[in-house]
UniProtKB/TrEMBL annotation:
This is ribonuclease H. It comes from Tricholomella constricta. The keyword Signal does not apply. GO terms for molecular function: metal ion binding; nucleic acid binding; RNA-DNA hybrid ribonuclease activity. Keywords: Endonuclease, Hydrolase, Metal-binding, Nuclease. The lineage of its organism: Eukaryota, Fungi, Dikarya, Basidiomycota, Agaricomycotina.
Amino acid sequence: MDMTVNSLSKGTGIHGRNFAFCPTLASYDLDILIVECKGCSRFFAACCVHKSFGGVLTGRPCKTCHTFQLVFTDGACSNNGHVDAKSGLGFTIGRNEEYKWSLPVDKVMDGDHPRTSQRAELLAAIEGLKKLDKRHTDCLDACEANDGYQYTNHPDEIPHLIVVTDSEYVTKGMSEWVPEWRAHGWRNKQGKRPGNVDLFKKLDRTITNLEHAGIVVGLWHVPRESNRVADSLAKDAAHGLNAYIE
């Protein structure tokens, strides 16, 4: 099965590793496209097939489509570009505190590489995706335990994990640059090793492994103002504050 092009709800799906909505939904505001399930407090993308929406359309109908699961990710770096720079990661998959993580970047996570904003953004996407993968079945259990709250899925029930980021560097890198680099032995057009290629390869490998397990993965680029929770968590981690580590 080709996981790089997967259309479900009339065009909504993963196209070249980018998540995109069908033309009808693409015209909606983001508060309608991001849905919070009342049963499990997790975040999902809107689905026109099941009329599952957020914002002013929440609750029509009562069933939330759980097909497109979201993890909002962000990376932050204090004193970016300096030897004393410190980086942090933030990601969230739901409204509750148990669904929020704030992780400082240390040698265990990223060795002796310089702490930069770009590396932090890539690390956040990698670690956030791993966290979402570990928790992607929890939402169904939570809904079933919550007085039989009704949720719905697409017939094939293939998990779709969506990494939400405000970093064009991450989304453009994975959808446009990585295929070219891979085709040329992980070199750019000038024949040189691209910056942060180790993390691009790691994210590419993480996505590919999930695809081989039958899980569809995509990246969704959103404006910074739509990623404030992850941004705050990342900044806290970069400054050594309120680390949420599981």
